[in-house]
Amino acid sequence: MGAIIYSLCALTSLLCAVLLFRSYASFRHRILLWSGLSFSILFINNGLVVIDKVLVPTVDLSIWRLVCALVALMPLLYGLIWEED
């Protein structure tokens, strides 16, 4: 059951990233770009969760997952602080 939930979370992050990038291509609002980048990295983070918890449960990837989550928040934080509209 956990594998299904982890996989659905990864697919949801990927879908959000694709939709945000499509919206950015149409409207050219920079916050959509930063949000799309953030969700792209969150997709990688969720992929690491699937690898860590389902595929290779004996290997601890928690540090890599935390670093990935921190990196995922940085583009969104940059966009919220420095972009003006």
From the spread of the alpha carbons, the general shape counts as elongated
End-to-end distance, in Å? 44 Å
The oligomerization state is single chain
* Overall pLDDT confidence: 96
Summary keywords:
mainly alpha, single chain, 85 residues
Describe the structure.
This protein has 85 residues and is mostly helical. It has one domain. Helices cover 86% and strands 0% of the residues. The protein is built from three helices and no strands. The longest helix has 26 residues. The protein is elongated and about 45 Å long. The mean pLDDT is 96.
Describe the structure in brief.
The chain is mainly alpha-helical and about 80 residues long. About 85% of the residues lie in helices and about 0% in strands.
How is the topology of this model organized?
Elements: H1 2-27, H2 30-55, H3 62-82
Helix pairs in contact: 1-2, 2-3
